[in-house]
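Changelog note: in this version the structure field was regenerated for every chain. One regenerated record is shown below for reference.
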Amino acid sequence: MKLKTMMTMAAAASLAACTTGKMNEQRLTSGIDLGNLDTTYQVGTDFYMYATGGWQKAHPLTAEYSRYGSFDALQENNNVQLRALIDSVAALKNTQEGSIEQKIADLYRSAMDSVRLNTESMQDLAAFLACDGYRSPGAAQKWIEEVWPRMMRQGVDGLFSLYIGADEKDSKNNIVNLFQGGMTLGQKDYYLENDENTMRIRAAYRKYIVDLAQHAGFAQQDAETMCEDVMRIETRLAQASKSMTELRDAEANYHKYSMEQMKSEFGGIDWQAYFAVFGVKAGEVKDMVVGQPDAIHEVEKILKEESAEALQNLYLWHAIDMAANYIDDEARALSFDFYGKTMSGKAEDRPRWKRAVSSVEGCLGEALGQLYVARYFPPQAKERMEKLVKNLQVALGERIKVQDWMSEETKKVAQDKLDAFYVKVGYPNKWRDYSKLVITDSYLNNILASNEFDIQNMIAEKLNKPVDKDEWHMTPQTVNAYYNPTTNEICFPAGILQPPFFDMNADDAFNYGAIGVVIGHEMTHGFDDQGSKYDKEGNLKQWWKPEDTKRFEERIQVMRTFHDNIEVLPGLHANGSFTLGENIADHGGLMVSFQAFENALKEMPLDTLDGFSPQQRFFLAYANVWGQNIRDEEIRRRVKQDPHQLGKWRVDGQMPHIDAWYEAFHITEEDPMFIPKEARVQVW
């Protein structure tokens, strides 16, 4: 996955995919759990169900989940491990005030203390909202001037989003980046589309606003007014915002301005006052990149045209909505009823301890990660993973050489970019310093303090400073992986290095089919329809020859059209443009990892095991990574918001385009999944 979209992946506490030396003296298993199969399905009719149908039957959806798959199963295991680590810290006596141990223990306790949450947290909320005298003459404007700046520092969403990160056209240096925002529902479709399901969600959102505002202490009439103000302003923002597909175009979302130009082009916003809220002095912000100028112009209009009372209502709502998960059980239930049940189809909330573990991860992630790595990630695992990554780099280089759509000049530059990949495995080289974060016994205040700490840390570490390539954008325990185009890096946290993604007891067929494809996927992101627009230094720059780009676009159109035609639910189709980058990366990951696997077979041939050839086990291992059960509501949500295809179509949408799959399972034109060779994707 690309860093901007954050795709999840997973794998084991040690790597056997580079089976050399003494490891080859062992009798490695196939790694394939035959119970995961459902042989009532035919390989060439529905490979996904053939490979994962047994797993799905053995892992029915529980009330807690809207989707339960291999990733979730691994995360459940990680949750247990993390809870044990936190419990061991909490059991320590006489921990020093301000120590990491004190912070982890007290944050966890504040999340678990249901008695305090249900008796005292509403006082914390009242102090946070600070809206005594609400609706008194002039109170709204005074609140905006005095309270709203403090909320901004505590991470409450306003009308747009801002962060400090790499300048995409000067990737060695950080810059202030401004993006569209202010939409509680995340993206514009929920406000503007009028199909039955979207209108149902909007109606439920209205009810949620009124119910939660009343629970927070507002009278019914005031809560209803707040709802109208929120819906009107957020809909205005949605109308001016870009779609999820439009946001994928990096060049179209890059507009650099000097501060003087910002004051001229976006004069409806007092930028000096805005940055002063965060302690940034006049003149410190010299340049900004505005992702979506139309959305920021709409913010100017909203600030001019909406009343102080309406703006206060919007800001209060964003604060109340954020706080709902960190106060009493009734507020949490209202939040879950909307986001969990209505949006995703879940029937039951996660137990309190899982939510508490998640909060510790969110606030003290690298501190917890140090404990996790020490206990669960041995040094040899990191070494072996790095070797496997190198094998995949060699294979991708070989794939680049044989592409007839690439000119020799572009191939050379592509190889240079591949050679320049910055590989991160397991955990950071340096750990984050949490000494300035203060943790107390108030859950809400701890979350607010953590938000403010993160914002101030971002300013201190990044404003007017070069990019730190050693920074990690995931914690070591995360079940995930990413490619970051501006640093040209691929990252595989320790949490991904476990079954079903990597199994030290399984042979190369399994490990190349699972974690190998994950690695290849992330590498391919550097050359997909967006990653290919960044050079080896991470700069947004055209480095392909125009005719190569044209041939590439023609070939990936096959992928776009194929996925556009997939009907994921009756009347609902996948979005081939929105998911294009991830689909290309899946295709490339399969092609590159299979190449690396064939290279490994030349040195160490494998036998048929459990009735399957090595090549068949490769594809079965890949399919099992995506085994899952999912509710219809979650399918609809993901089609709108997730740039990754659904699990089923990451398998059945990819196999028909992989020649080696046809050969491994003897697929012929008599099989329903068969696609003529000339109609298949021909990229990697």
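Spot check on this record: The first strand starts at residue 67 and ends at 69. The chain has 26 helices and eleven strands.
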